[in-house]
Amino acid sequence: MKISSADLFMKVRERKPLVHQITNFVTVNDCANATLAIGGSPVMTSSPREVADMVKLANALVLNFGTIDDKALEAMEIAGKTANALDIPVILDPVGVGATSYRTEQVKELLSKVTFQIIRGNASEILSMMGGDTVTRGVDSGELAISNAELAAQAANELNSIIVVSGAKDAVSDGKHTSIIDNGNLLLTNVTGTGCMSTALIGAFSGVTDDFYSAAIAGISTMSISGELAASTLQKDEGTGTFRVRLIDAISRMDKEIWMHEVKLSEKVAN
Ligand SMILES: Nc1ncnc2c1ncn2[C@@H]1O[C@H](COP(=O)(O)OP(=O)(O)OP(=O)(O)O)[C@@H](O)[C@H]1O
Ligand SMILES: Cc1ncsc1CCO
Ligand SMILES: [Mg+2]
């Protein structure tokens, strides 16, 4: 598992996958820059009249619930169905699901129409997608009793998708295997969109392989390791603004060697 994720860095930079993202207006620019930094090519378009044509050109599709409205949801359904028909991987970021009934109902609706190869969210969002008691506050995660690894494994079985639960420890599961990534830095929670950007990275890696488990690990671990590296460069008079810029620097410098040196990845077989 470790080796196949490591090999994806070069593949992304060689192939420059086009990652079509229907995403939120808060973090759209950061997601485009994160995609470029890892070697992908972003396109962020959301008109229901255009998305079917755009997704046909794409290597991966990312659907992000951050600022959904009825028009964006219409575009997501069209793009998602088109991608499914063409075997283009679809990745969901269920931002804020659990906070309001609109988000929770609409994500269920979309799940019934579109197949997602990977779903990445924080623990509250993933729990809410399984019908659990909601602890999502706005777009941030609350405290849960269940570990991210257990949650990811259960959600993978229930939702029939590879699940990434991000947090202090990130977990990736296909329901049979669960991997834990013990990288990260608290500063990642003080800059908006680090979760959205990690989903964009997962999209880029999914555009160059059909090993979506390895793509999910590569994407989320790139964000967590880049957070550590960016934090380690901060001087006394620097804060979250500089951190945000250094984060993109670290993503743009990430490669197989750095990743192999920094990643704290453990794999276990669930149940
Ligand atoms: N307590 C923590 N300590 C260290 N790293 C963390 C912590 N919580 C989250 N992270 C890291 O922050 C990144 C984003 O994950 P997070 O769970 O905060 O996403 P999110 O809630 O969807 O964020 P957003 O909605 O702002 O985009 C991941 O790389 C994750 O590992
Ligand atoms: C702050 C915020 N609100 C809606 S989307 C978003 C970006 C982080 O998910
Ligand atoms: Mg999020």
What descriptors fit this protein?
271 residues, alpha/beta, UDP-N-acetylmuramoyl-L-alanine:D-glutamate ligase, 9-stranded mixed beta sheet, 12 helices, 15% strand, globular, binds adenosine-5'-triphosphate, binds 2-(4-methyl-thiazol-5-yl)-ethanol, binds magnesium ion
* Beta-strand residue percentage: 15-25%
- Count of the separate structural domains: 1
| CATH third-level topology | UDP-N-acetylmuramoyl-L-alanine:D-glutamate ligase
Low-confidence stretches: none
Widest sheet: strand order?
Answer: 2-1-3-4-5-6-7-8-9
Number-wise, the strands total 9
Radius of gyration over C-alpha positions, nearest whole angstrom: 17 Å
Largest sheet: 9 strands, mixed
Return the structural class.
alpha/beta
Could you give the order of the helices and strands?
A: HHEHEHEHEHEHHEEEHHHHE
Could you estimate the helical fraction of the residues in percent? 40-55%
Cα distance, first to last residue? 19 Å
- What would you say the CATH architecture is? 3-Layer(aba) Sandwich
What does this structure look like?
It is a single chain. The chain is an alpha/beta fold. It has one domain (2-269): Ribokinase (UDP-N-acetylmuramoyl-L-alanine:D-glutamate ligase, 3-Layer(aba) Sandwich), CATH 3.40.1190. The protein has helices at residues 2-6, 8-15, 28-38, 51-57, 70-85, 101-113, 123-129, 148-159, 194-206, 212-232, 240-253, 256-262; strands at 18-22, 41-43, 60-64, 90-93, 118-122, 162-166, 170-173, 177-181, 265-269. Helix 3 (28-38) links the parallel strand 1 (18-22) and strand 2. Helix 3 packs across helix 9, helix 4 (51-57) packs parallel to helix 5 and helix 9 packs across helix 10 (212-232). The protein is globular. The two termini are 19 Å apart. The model has no long low-confidence stretch (mean pLDDT 95). The structure holds adenosine-5'-triphosphate (ATP), 2-(4-methyl-thiazol-5-yl)-ethanol and magnesium ion. The site of adenosine-5'-triphosphate has 23 residues, from helix 9 and helix 10.
